[in-house]
Structure formats: structure tokens, C-alpha cells
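haha ok so turns out i had the wrong file open the whole time. this is the CORRECT one, sorry everyone. sequence first:
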Amino acid sequence: MPSRERSAAVPGAGSVDPADHPPLPLPDADWDWLRERCAALGLPDPAPWRETLAALYGHLVGVNRWLNLTTVTSPRDWLKWHVLDSWSGLRAAALRAVQSGALAVDLGSGGGYPGLPLALALPHLRWLLIDARRKKAEFLGAAARLLGPWVGARHLRGDCVPHAAPELHRACQLVVNRAMGPADAVLPQAAPLLAEGGLLVVWKGPAFLGSERDRAAGVAPRWGFRVADVTGLRLEDGDPERYLVTYRRVGGR
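then structure:
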């Protein structure tokens, strides 16, 4: 994190209010690239969401000047590695199957991904972005206001849900997670949130199909999970294959 002296010189330092971090325009060339990649991946046309994405981008970049949220800040990289990568989750059958009005949680949301882009694309679900770090949870709450009343945020760890947030215990139909840690560490964090039959979708890189998959398979039964689906994809031709791994909660602890 920047020093106090350096932060004091940064516009909007210490504030997560979107009013202090206005929208940043997304260059036409980068926007056209996003639309082309969405079409190639069978994802919705993002045209209706350009204004909201510009607001989310400006807010992230502004807060990121004083709060470490991401190293990805150029427009094209942000659109690829945060927005498009988050939307790639729409290719998982689990996200398409969740009923309207169900509670969906982005576990360890950090800078808001994949939760913010998914909430933008799936406003028929009730979204909650949770993070164990208070400042990041405050940022997420402010970012959620840029979308609408179906999105909220909370300072919370998944394994603390039974006593810290009993209203969420076994109340969620969907949990999504990206870049919080290995799958065998994510499963016990997600288990207290998910109702029986609920789905956990985890974003994973090319190394998943090795020891990480085996470790997760070893602990999944203990936490009441079984693998429901593994979907491979590439954001662009030539990229390493990435994976959307879906676990269904079938009982257990």
C-alpha cells in the first residue's frame, strides 16, 4: 500500500465513494475487441452495459491508486482479464440454471471479480460480494451501488458464516470464486454458504488439471461436494486453456 504521505497527494485517497472516482471512457478499439470476443465465446453482446462498465472501471482505477486491488489497469487488459474472464462463467451450465431471485455470493471478491460483471449480466439473481478484508469490502459496497439494489457487499469470511452471518448459513444457491486460492482451500470456505444442491463455480488456470484437482478431489467429500462439470475455454486464440470447475453440494458438514 502507498505511504501515508504519497496517498495524501493522490486525488480521492482514502475514499471509495464513486463520486470521487468518475467513469473512464473505454477506447473504441478495446470495446470493439470485447464485443468480438463475446460473440466468439457465445456470450451476450455487452453493448447495453458500456456506460456501467466505464463507471466500474473509473471507480476501480481511482481507488486502486491508494488501495491495492489489482495490477491490471489498462483498458484492454481490464476488459480481458477482469470483465471477459468473469463473463466466461456464463458458459458454465450452473450459472444458467440458477432460478430467478436466488442468492448468489462472490466469495473472496477482492476487486469485485467475477461478481461485478456477473451481477451486471445476471440481475435476476441477488448478489452478495464478500471479502475478509474490511477496506476491500467497503470498496465492494461502493462499487455495488453503481449497478443496483440487487447487489450488496459484506466484510466476511466464508468459514465464519455460521456464527457471524447465520442468515447466510446454507442459504445460497450459487457461490462463485476466482483467484482466492487452491480449490481444496476454497471448498471449506464455500460449504457453510451453500444449500444442499447449491453450486460452486471456481475459475482455474491451466495448472488445475494436476495436483490441485487431485487435492480438491480428496477433500470434496468431507465438505459435501462432488464435481458436477469442468468446462475448458480460451479467452483468445493462443491463450492457455482455462477451466470453469463446478462443484455441487450434496450434503456433509
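The longest strand covers residues 194-204.
again sry for the mixup
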